[in-house]
Amino acid sequence: MRSLRLRSNIDNLLTYGLVIIAYIVMRILITSGNISSSLQGQLVPITAYIVMAVSLNLTVGVLGELSLGHAGFMSVGAFSGVITATLLTDTIPMTWLRLALALLIGGLIAGIFGFLIGIPVLRLQGDYLAIVTLAFGEIIKNVMNTIYLGYDANGIRISMESANALQLAEDGKVILNGPMGAIGITKLSTFNAGFVLILITLFIVLNLINSRSGRAIKAVRDDKIAAESVGISSWRYRMMAFVTSATLAGAAGALYALNYTTVVARKFDFNTSILVLVFVVLGGMGNIRGSIIAATVLTVLPEVLRAFNEVRMLVYAVILILVMLVRNNLTLRQLFQKIGIKRRNSLANNKEGDDS
Amino acid sequence: MNRVRKKTKMVPLPSQSIVPERDVAQKPILEVSRLGINFGGLAAVEDFNIAVGPTEISGIIGPNGAGKTTIFNLLTKVYQPTSGAILLDGKDTANMNTVQINQAGIARTFQNIRLFPSLSVEDNVKIGLHNQIGYGMFSGIFRLPRFFSGERRARERAMELLDIFDMTHLASHRAGSLPYGAQRRLELIRALATNPKLLLLDEPAAGMNPSETEELMNNIEKIRDRFQIAIMLIEHDMRLVMGICEGIAVINYGKIIAKGTPEEIQNNPLVIEAYLGKKKGYQPC
């Protein structure tokens, strides 16, 4: 009986271990100069996508609801993170503290958006929920496209018309320039910061899943009516998962945006939501380690496939299909089990013999 | 006997030695008056009245489609009644929802088993204990001391409950992989874990063979004696109903057609008519 808990502990340690080892390997490669500049440029986006994938897995895998607007929360986090970082440029000279605050504020504001959007969205289930989250993702993108925001000595100005309508003083600076996106960002994100954010995300998500609240979230996923009949408020726990997921996506968005000098709202569109969903589905729903691996591989893959030039995306698609086929092939799965690759829900195959 | 029930605290399980006080004349735990619901123009349940003593086992029987499960759904607020009042332990439940009803002391099982199939047996019971494990989301994420003490107590209690029904050896199995009978028992344990005052069992013997039904009857009496709670059940197995119920209500077309002890019910002409149809004169040719 102890074995189940032990196994989940070992599973979590493996996940942390994987991230830490990958980080150390990359650090060694960077210091010894054995890394291509294109891959080095991908490091921060990879960490941001890993956080996105893990956070979306909380909604899709653990809560069991398909969200197609996850990039919307990334967008909210990205722009609020950029605004925070830019406004604090003079007040806080330490870049790491400025970055940490930007991630925190980006996460919190995305969390607030998650709560507000969750109120109507979580009244729905299944396909309907997916459609409405898709709509909210698009709405966020289009609203972000129309916001002009700048600041000068007199404070912050917001307009929905044009940068000139802000009427900034001479020393003023435009932060959000409508469809041009956030401009003049000071690059703050580092690979180290991304690594720390992944660890924080894993800490929050894994501990949440393996606690009373996580159990309740899974119970609501399995059977909402039964969960309510034993006194579990489905609204409360669905909201908890959704808001946590949105908050982490917001922090990932801030990390992502602060890695570039300009970021446009179009970057966080439906395609990005689907991309992150592909990470989650390919890695296995509810499988956090799978999400991390899938996010890494699928972010690096297009770069590696540059050799194929024009048929690059075709090869990418074929690889995706092949992975799906292999994962669902019974013979291959048994083969994997034989050579010791344990499947996540080995609980199902658990016989009385091994619960000593 | 005055037992204190606190939903936020885990009270120790009563020991086996307690002798049940089968006094139906005591203040009833559940009082239902003139309960009714309309679906469109159809009165699925109409003018339903019942009073259940604090340790009484009562049964609801009736032909298929008579409205028995609807009554359970009304008591647990899965449906909102269109008329009538439900008093639980003297308190009106009019403004409560399903979750609050459970916290107020009604637990139920379902006609088609509704477990959390992907969770382990132990976790299924711990879900039932959810409101008695007092730590929140942040204690859970940051692994504060309350997390460890709460989880330890939950585990002990879950094992204690599983032990009563000889299921500790299945604790780490996936609930969905259990055989049918064990799933039914687990659903019962999960309902008991919520510390109810009234337990509603919706066709607990459905799909069971005679020896399993026998075991179930023993279990139901064991639950009542040990936990000192009222049990109300819907059942088609007449041997079970007549064997353990102290009071029986017969429903047909959403209305009570007879109420009484098992003997009274068995000899009631209205009941016989509801089950077997009207007696027609035999015409020899």
Helix content of chain A: 55-70%
| Computed structural class of chain B | alpha/beta
Instruction: Average the pLDDT over all residues of chain A and give the rounded result.
Output: 88
Largest sheet of chain A: 3 strands, antiparallel
The total count of strands of chain B amounts to: 10
The number of helical runs of chain B is 10
Beta-strand content bin of chain B: 15-25%
**What is the H-and-E element order of chain B?**
EEEHEEHEHHHHEHEHEEHH
Structure description:
The complex is a heterodimer of chains A (356) and B (285). By secondary structure, chain A is mainly alpha-helical. Chain A has one domain (2-145, 181-354): ABC transporter involved in vitamin B12 uptake, BtuC (Orthogonal Bundle), CATH 1.10.3470. Chain A has helices at 2-32, 37-62, 70-87, 95-121, 126-144, 191-209, 212-222, 224-229, 234-257, 270-283, 288-304, 312-327, 330-338, and strands spanning 148-152, 155-159, 173-177. Chain A is globular, with a radius of gyration of 21 Å. Chain B folds into two domains: 23-105 and 198-275, P-loop containing nucleotide triphosphate hydrolases (Rossmann fold), CATH 3.40.50; 114-195, P-loop containing nucleotide triphosphate hydrolases (Rossmann fold). Chain B is 35% helix and 21% strand. Chain B is built from ten helices and ten strands. Chain B is globular and about 75 Å long. Classes of the chains: A mainly alpha (356), B alpha/beta (285). At the A-B interface, helix 6, helix 7 and helix 8 of A face helix 2, helix 3, helix 4, helix 5 and helix 6 of B.
